[in-house]
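Let's do one together. I've listed all components of the complex below, 591 residues spread over two lines.
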Amino acid sequence: MIEAQQLTKRYGETTAVDRLDFTVRPGTVTGFLGPNGAGKSTTMRMIVGLDAPTHGTVTVNGRRYAEHTAPLQEVGALLEAKSIHPGRSAFDHLMAQAYTHGIPRRRVEEVIGMTGLDSVAKKRAGAFSLGMGQRLGIAAALLGDPATVMLDEPVNGLDPEGVLWIRNLLTGLASEGRTVFVSSHLMSEMALVADHLIVVGRGRMLADTTVEELISQAGGDTVQVATADPARLREVLAGPGIEITGRVGSEELQVTGMEARAIGLKAAEAGIALFQLTAKALSLEEAFMELTRDAVEYHGTTETSGSAA
Amino acid sequence: MSTITSTRTPVPSPVQGGRPVYRVTARRVLRSEWAKLWSLRSTWITLGLGLLFLVAFGLIASWQFKSRITSGRHMDGDFASSTAVSLSLFGTNFAQLALGVLGVLVTAGEYSTGMIRSTLAAVPRRLPVLWSKSAVFGAVALVVGTVGAFVAFLFGSGIVSGTPAALSISDPGVVRSLLAAGLYLGLIGVLGTALGALLRSVAGGISVLVGSLMLVPGLISLLPSSWQDHVRPYLPSEAGASMFALHHEAHTLTPTAGLLVFLAWTGLAMAGASWRLMRTDA
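Okay, and this is what the predicted structure of the assembly comes out as:
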């Protein structure tokens, strides 16, 4: 359980995190989503006390992180930037972390096994590939058997097998009743694992919602149909949970809540000829882009015109 | 878009059943810092260099003295009044650089590599990390310095035996001087860790360390000479040298005063380091 209240971080003039209020609950995977520079990493650093908030508070299981007697048992964190000494072996790094809490050597060997680092555990961590380094960071996060696992961009640098492993790990940890908080700038990745979503942009809260809600908010799955008699088609298709929109005088209608196949069958039954029947599934990615469009800090130069959607 | 959902009651960890109970203690943080120190190759190399400097330069100075005596060449005043202790401890000037630099690396190295994030995530109260690093490395530097001082004297006094500088370990003040040299090097180690934590930069820490130990004494000679005598004895390097000098002269501090002044410098650096560690983001 992570609770943030009016959490704010300012660096001089710039506000990296702007009055965030959110709660990350146990037993589910909560995605922390936002474009680059949205304040995700800063928020996570404040959760584990590396940065002090300018205003507001953030607590972990009811207390500030530093007030816990065994912090690594409360939150296991993988931060975005490398947090190792390159001259130390993976085993020595984990063992040094373990000593501070009295975590036995057995547990160190266990997390090395879980993350598939057995063959390289005695090698200098500085020589690790990006993916290996990421696995070492995850091993360190799991070391204290933490109630809350917090990972900043965990799939960065992982191969497809590693990505799949992370997905299973996250859902597995949540099903054990742990709080899982994962940041990403990739909506597609989050859609596969997260139940709950916290979306931020430029330090501000944009949405605190679920994956389904986000899609339906942004327009959901719509089907575009065109017919000579849109008024009659409306009557035929009307029903509970079905929304039909269309401009007056236009042959086109947008239907949500009904599949293209069902629309086609109904129109055929009623003897209405359709000129067009196109499923326009709004992807999560588009829903996300829509939400964060105004909050993206670094726009590319080939920006699409705002008339779409 | 819901924003505020605040439940203020502490929530027990959901996965408590059967979990081991861990706890951060001062001893465990010490244990961790001990393990961190010895798991880096640079520690072994730099400590080895420090020991080598301490012994080798002591022997070279002793041998130089002996050869000048036997060849009857002229020696300037300072060198002529050398003792077996001062000759054997000639290497402290060089050993202090190796040990001080390693002290800087122990703390500033964590910032330059990013290791500090892991360290402070495990010990978010922070200050125990600084105390432990200083204590562990100070103790190691103390042992290396003391062993080096005694070894250097053992061989150095053998070389200069039969000359005016000859001393034996049982002569008054000799053991105290050698122990004080070890203590000085131990405190140099602590000073290095404090400077590294204060400046959070390996280059910056080493510059300040070398500057204050070797450059500032030279700069002092630019001051009016009436000031020099008042300022010079209180410089870290001079106060430290008074700690292990066999004879205390009119313009230097007594060994005890030297120790107190050097402790004050170390304490000052430590206070600055603690302040920065607690006040600023890692």
